[in-house]
Fold Glucose-6-phosphate 1-dehydrogenase.
Amino acid sequence: MTQQTEVQQTVPKLKDHNIWQGGHETNPCAIVLFGATGDLAQRKILPTLAHLIHDHPQPETICIVAFARRPLGDEGWRAMVLESLDKYMAADDKLDDKGKQAFAQRLFYCQSNFDEDAGYQRLGQLLDTLDKEQHTGGNRLFYLATPPDTDAEIIEHLGKAGLAQPPKQNGNGKKSWVRIITEKPFGHDLASARSLNAQIGKVFHEDQIFRIDHYMGKETVQNIVAFRFANSIMEPLWNQKYIDHIQITVAESLGIENRAEYYETSGAIKDIVQNHVMQILSLIAMEAPADFSANDIRDEKVKVLRAICALTPEQVQERTVRGQYVAGEQDGKHVVGYKEEKGVSPQSTTETYVALKLFIENWRWADVPVYIRTGKHLPKRSTEVMVQFKRVPHQLYKPEQMKDLQPNRLILRIQPDEGIDLKIGAKVPGAANDLATIDLNASYKTVFGIELPEAYERLIADCIVGDSTLFIRRDEIEESWRIIDSITDTWKKMDPNTVYPYAAGTWGPEEADKLIQRDGRDWVNP
């Protein structure tokens, strides 16, 4: 009788990442959170701050001040935050009672409406008190986790109250700083973005402004730069001579999740393409910067966006596809259509899916199409970049020997399974000269054994140390909107029937497949 022993495999615990950059001085500061009782703050920002302070402690003090309308006071605010931490922090990140109480002691509350002058005066007095009692050193970080239409009002009042500049007396003799974080969307078109840039520029200098896009905080997005410029084998191939085309896919399996009020005014192109996709594309296509400084990197990103020409009305009709999900099946469950979602107009023409074909008009990328697609209620959640190389110039093998062979493809997986996948041709073992495609696959977590930082955590930490590399500069915002406006302006004049239906749980409308198939190519699904 053979005895079988069951071997239990244990998954090794991932090592903690280092969130504070070497060579950068961390500072004490007060983080003033506008919209502190809102959904974004409760779900994302406060749990991120709790994790950052608890798991990556620094000797310097960080205090968090809520600026909101509700009559809560310090204790009511602290109770609300601790409840949110219990609800929204990941199970393996939750704080014990001691950690909760330590975090709660960093929380302070300033009650005011956003348009109340006296409220900003009270805020200034509270910040001065924290400098003296909590030793925050006169450093202030204003975080606008608020609806975009309130940004200009808050910025104006901060300026009127004298809060946009550091205090002359900070209690420690060191030079203080004031910075401001604004959430996306930054404007809703080019004109509004320029107006908001002008308004914020009257109060804050550009080096004080940190326009946040959480995709830029993802480790895999930052690795695009490292992959390109830390490997000598890639640069000679990274151009129109060897690359056939590029695909960028941002697929979401969820619908609009009770965000109809926002989504009806944005749609997929403004929600995802204008910010996330354009940032990824600029990193994929940019030239090597002179060095790794924030401005040099952002200079090169802007050059990519400037090289993308605004689309003519004829090009919009030929190179773009809009879609809107209708009822379907997702993960074995029935899903209602977009027009049946709460708060959505039955006549809505808002796109929940968009596919585009763009060209970067420069020497490196001439005639290389970039295909972009994003959508709600697609079969799976995935963000990835697929770079397809050209076929070999002369094929030595017979067609029947290559039936399982694909062109070389490099896939950069941004989420959720972060890593790199390179598809290459190889001979199948045996006497025949049959070829097949094999995968060289590297998962970041497996290779490094390190837990990847949460995007907001990295970005907030960078703002505290004053590194703006991963934040979006004024000219980047405006160049991106220039491209998007050329598309949406034409969409407004097109027949509403050109918003094509697709069943929830599928990869989008047939017209999106035709867009790429007309060029003799196919979408590569994650």
